[in-house]
Design brief:
It is a single chain. With about 350 residues, this protein is an alpha+beta fold. The protein folds into 2 domains: about 230 residues, P-loop containing nucleotide triphosphate hydrolases (Rossmann fold), CATH 3.40.50; about 110 residues, Nucleic acid-binding proteins (OB fold (Dihydrolipoamide Acetyltransferase, E2P), Beta Barrel). It is built from 9 helices and 20 strands. It starts with a strand and ends with a strand. About 35% of the residues are buried. The structure holds adenosine-5'-diphosphate (ADP) and magnesium ion. The site of adenosine-5'-diphosphate (ADP) has 10 residues, from α1. Keywords: ATP-binding, Cell membrane, Membrane, Nucleotide-binding, Sulfate transport, Translocase, Transport. Pfam families: ABC_tran, TOBE_3. GO terms for molecular function: ATP binding. This is Sulfate/molybdate ABC transporter ATP-binding protein.
Length: about 350
């Protein structure tokens, strides 16, 4: 089911939690809403579910304006961070819940419900655990039961709000892979909320980066990581360094010194801007006459195959702090002066 969010605004007591948000979700797609806490991810998900009504704008399910449809009418399944399984019900009864509470005419016969529960258990790889109670399951198993329960009603759209957020890192990683496989098998249109960039980049077909109630960028993992379109996206996803620069026809300047990069790769071609690059996208410059950024190593530390140097560049009184990756054999002791140049970068208007 295609879902289209059109120019949505959502106010809580006049405070806009979302402002003019538009998004087209394609049928069968796994999309991640990624952003810091408070950016409006949950609000957008709840609007799609029908748990909130928009202040302005519309939500379409396929060609139909679903803006005023109830949760039940929208036929969505959802899973939240804090698994809300019914403690007093077995796994099987939890999964069957959405079917057993259907109005009489739509309720499948008991044998049919049993058959579906069996199928769903198999789908989430929990066959054999149907008689257990939630407190007899691990956190990861409980979230898979929650997913099976959401799937039981054969939802048109699956909405997942930080479903693995309460689990420890190792289980979270396993479930992430598992969910991707599950999605590829079942092909449900899925919207997944997370504040964890790694989770979003690994899992999603497309990532929607949100900040302060607005969408900053929509794209593949490669798009948002390699081609961030705003300073926010550049610094929110992955490690980055930034410096104030001046862009001229013949180069990019930091504190009136050319730094050896061309005035392209940016949203402006002249004037004051901010240069962004990633720590791994630099080379050391050994020729003292070649233009480069120059700074003093304040600390450096070894990672597995590389070394990270913290460098203060710029005037001694007001240095700018950047982190760069240097080869293990580089002279990068505290106090050393290093000269370097970004190999990939982007400039944005200041
Ligand atoms: P996220 O899920 O990205 O952390 P939310 O969608 O939960 O963000 O919240 C976005 C903003 O809307 C926040 O500032 C939050 O405080 C506010 N907000 C969310 N729900 C409500 C509500 N029911 N009443 C008032 N403010 C709300
Ligand atoms: Mg949230």
């Amino acid at each position: 089911m295609d879902v289209s969010v059109k120019n949505i605004r959502k106010e809580f007591d006049r405070y806009p939690a979302l402002n003019d948000v538009s998004l087209d979700i394609r049928s069968g797609e796994l999309i991640a809403l990624l952003g810091p806490s408070g950016s409006g991810k949950t609000t957008l998900l709840r609007l799609i579910a029908g748990l909130e009504t928009p202040t302005l704008g519309k939500i379409y399910f396929g060609a139909e304006d679903a803006s005023h449809r109830t949760v039940q009418e929208r036929h969505v399944g959802f899973v939240f961070q804090h698994y809300a399984l019914f403690r007093h019900m077995t796994v099987a009864d939890n999964i069957a819940f959405g079917l057993t509470v259907r109005p009489r005419g739509e309720r499948p016969p008991k044998a049919e419900i049993q058959r579906r529960v069996g199928e769903l258990l198999e789908m989430v790889q929990l066959s054999g655990l149907e008689k257990r109670y939630p407190n007899q399951l691990s956190g990861g198993q409980r979230q898979r039961v929650a997913l099976a329960r959401a799937m039981a009603i054969e939802p048109k759209v699956l909405l997942l709000d930080e479903p693995f957020g309460a689990l420890d890192a190792k289980v979270r990683k396993e479930l992430r892979r598992w969910l991707r496989e599950f999605h590829d098998r079942t092909g449900h249109t899925t919207v997944f909320v997370t504040h964890d960039q790694e989770e979003a980049l690994e899992l999603a077909d497309r990532v929607v980066v949100m900040s302060q109630g607005a969408i900053e960028q929509v794209g593949s993992s490669d798009d948002v990581y390699d081609r961030p379109n705003s300073p926010f996206v550049f610094s929110f996803i992955g490690d980055s360094a930034s410096l104030p620069v001046t862009i001229a026809d013949n180069g990019v300047y930091f504190e009136n010194e050319a730094i050896g990069i061309a005035p392209r790769n940016g949203d402006i071609t002249s004037g004051n801007g901010t240069l962004f690059f990633r720590p791994q996208d630099v080379v050391l410059v050994s020729d003292p006459a070649a233009p480069a950024l120059e700074g003093r190593v304040s600390t450096s530390r070894r990672l597995a195959g590389t070394r990270i140097a913290d460098i203060d560049v710029g005037k001694p009184g007001e240095p700018h702090h950047v982190e760069i990756e240097v080869p293990l054999d580089a002279q990068a002791a505290t106090g050393t002066t290093l000269r370097f140049r970004p190999t990939r970068w982007k400039t944005f208007a200041a």
